[in-house]
Amino acid sequence: MNKKLVFICLGALLVAILAPGIHALMMIPSEVTQFEGEEQSLDFGLPWGVQIKDTNGILKLADEVGEGVVLQTNESGNYDFTFNLLGLIPLKRMQVNVIPQVKLVPSGHSIGVKVSDYGVMVAGLDSVLTSAGRVEPAKDSGFEVGDILLTVNDTKLTSLEHAAAVLEKESQPGKELTCEVLRQGSTHVLKITPVFDEESSKKRLGLLLRDTAAGVGTMTFYHPETGIYGALGHMITDEQGGKALDLSSGSIVDADIISIQPGQKGKPGEKKGTFNDAAPLGFIDTNTELGIYGRLARTPEAEGEALPLGFKHQVQTGEAEILTVVEGDKIERFSIEIEKVFIQSGPASKGMVLRITDPRLLETTGGIVQGMSGSPIIQNGKLVGAVTHVFINEPNRGYGCFAEWMVMESGLLEEIESIVPPELLEAYFFCFKQEKYTSP
């Protein structure tokens, strides 16, 4: 019994001795990405007996800078080093990926998002009351919500009004219609025959249609050399199931803000704009949780100054600015405060909490409004993020995402360096109270 107690005590003592060292090792990220010529501090204390083996000469060690290490290199490449117990037993490996400096133009341009350059969207499938009972001709013919109806009997549909006129003309008794639809990037031919609706006394197809405009938002950045852009900071979803809208044939166009409905407690505000359909500003490749991405067809008229990309570890609480449009197409700077910064191990749209502090913006919009999502966040001369959501009950506050995640989603780094920066594994996470929000 006494021996057992001794072993328990020794075990507890061993755990007490090793626990701080194990915790310290867990704090060390396995992979880190940084730019050429920049320093990055990793503030952790090394456990007793653990030594760093650095054959690349990119570290300043703890005895030089105090707690932790500082990574510093002026040459792109992938660097490895290990943490060894007493210099003999490897305990952990770290990889540092150094990439060339990335400079982006913070945009702030208001954009209109179009699901397709022509056609109309199937917004719903309706039943039709006939003399034999209710039927669903559109559903039975293979139509699905989210389809883009491109042509009817070889007539290309150019607008919602045009589609209504064509369908009215072509819907003759007993006449089958040939429809071409776009679905998930592929075209399909569907056949449908109108039926007589006892309620409206008209021929109907059971199709509920709307135009292909998906709304007004804000472009976050573009890369002048490649034309790659990122916008919105959150996914565009359908109206029914909240699924990602198929934007593989979509485009972005210039938009002018004509009015703003200010936000109020419990009721988000909204930018209202008109689309300029003269020529697409760019095309959409992907629609992700962190926004839409693609390539510009032309450079925006109001071209700004390119700024360095700020990594998420460089974002600090305190003063910052956003770029956005509140009237016409004029991009303006407005002051904000970053109240909280969350450590994230993977891409997510809520990386920081923002508060609008600019008196004029508060007077004009009440805070963050729909259509402002994607507005670039600038701090210390770097592009660090984008506005993504507004708190419904506090319209002057909301969330932002890190620009680093958006650049990774855009595919820009693969294009300019043919490497994908690895996920930065963080040791801890802050717990925070979940707040009700909506996407602006």
Structure summarized in a few sentences:
With 440 residues, the chain is α+β, with helices and mostly antiparallel strands. 15% of the residues lie in helices and 43% in strands. The protein folds into 3 domains: 18-99, Sandwich (Immunoglobulin-like), CATH 2.60.40.10; 103-113 and 214-438, Thrombin, subunit H (Beta Barrel), CATH 2.40.10.120; 116-211, Pdz3 Domain.
Work out the strand percent. Answer: 35-45%
Distance between the termini: 66 Å
Task: Write down the Rg.
Answer: 28 Å
Number of domains: 3
The best one-word shape is: elongated
What is the average per-residue confidence, as pLDDT, rounded to a whole number? Answer: 81
Task: Bin the helical content.
Answer: 10-25%
- Give, in spatial order, the strands making up the sheet with the most strands: 9-20-21-25-24-22
Structural class by secondary-structure content: alpha+beta
What's the helix count? 7
CATH architect. name of the largest domain:
Beta Barrel
Low-confidence stretches: 14-18, 61-66, 419-438
- Tell me the CATH topology of the largest domain: Thrombin, subunit H
The CATH C-level name of the largest domain is Mainly Beta
Beta strands, count:
34
What does this protein structure show overall?
By secondary structure, this protein is α+β, with helices and mostly antiparallel strands. Helix content is 15%, strand content 43%. Strand 22 and strand 23 (269-276) form a beta hairpin.
Offer a few descriptive terms.
alpha+beta, 440 residues, Immunoglobulin-like, Pdz3 Domain, 3 domains, single chain, Thrombin, subunit H, 7 helices, disordered C terminus, 6-stranded antiparallel β-barrel, elongated, 6-stranded antiparallel β-sheet
